[in-house]
Design brief:
Layout lengths: L4 E4 L9 H9 L5 E7 L11 H8 L5 E7 L7 H7 L3 E5 L6 H10 L3 E6 L17 E5 L15 H14 L4 E5 L6 H8 L3 E4 L1 H4 L3 H13 L1
Parallel strand pairs: 1-8, 2-3, 3-4, 4-5, 5-6, 6-7, 7-8
Helix pairs in contact: 2-3
The chain binds D-xylitol-5-phosphate (DX5) and zinc ion (ZN).
The site of zinc ion (ZN) has 6 residues, from strand 2.
Length: 219
Amino acid sequence: MTNYKIAPSILAADYANFASELKRIEETDAEYVHIDIMDGQFVPNISFGADVVASMRKHSKLVFDVHLMVVNPERYVEAYAQAGADIMTIHTESTLHIHGALQKIKAAGMKAGVVINPGTPVEALFPVLDLVDQVLIMTVNPGFGGQAFIPETMTKVARVAQERQERGLSFDIEVDGGIDNTTIGQAKVAGANVFVAGSYVFKGDLVERVATLREALND
Ligand code: DX5
Ligand code: ZN
């Protein structure tokens, strides 16, 4: 698979200036904007909700890759569809009804993503693989940017890529957490093709850092 996509994470941007931060992301060659929604329950941190995403939508044409770290995310499917989310990704650990929740996301017209934490076995994804457009393997524990990449998660990326091939499916495989110009190569080799990067890209010149990630993918 060579359909690589880079997704700068708005979590690492300046929260007081989303409009200009989105403009800066548009100036890079990234395809996605990764948007982290945190409720202070599923993860300790709190970010923002669907109304903020709706406001952001007015300032960007990039694909909005919305990652919900909230309890019972099925409650918010309509809200994020109306806010203009393109992909809505939800955790298996966050609902008793992951299958139904993913069906609801598809029915609302969004692409459906499913995500697991580092401590969750990869098999938790298997019952819903035929429903999803994207699988996200967390490469840090969710909740905060700037954490170290967990290399052991790469066996899960490889396993889900193998399962995809065996079943003849075509979902994207995304990684999120601790992605930089070194770890991106490990994730690519394991089988990932969508790469979220927060602190690495925002802690330097955004255009240059995204270009460096792209170069690392070409190595
Ligand atoms: C963590 C979030 C990530 C975060 C990644 O819970 O899901 O999207 O922004 O940030 P970095 O790239 O700094 O690890
Ligand atoms: Zn995320």
